[in-house]
Amino acid sequence: MSGTEKAKAQAEQAKGKAKEKTGRALGNERMTAEGNADQAKEDVKDTLRHR
What we know:
This protein has helices at residues 3-26, 29-49. By secondary structure, the protein is mainly α. The relative contact order is 0.18.
């Protein structure tokens, strides 16, 4: 994995975490779920890259 790909993956992971935390703070279940989904998507991509 190149440095650019790794940085992009970390940025996407951070974006998901931020969305989740914002959703929790606002009591917005949809935003919280979207944040969790974004993080899970990046986790799957990371797992597949390390195979």
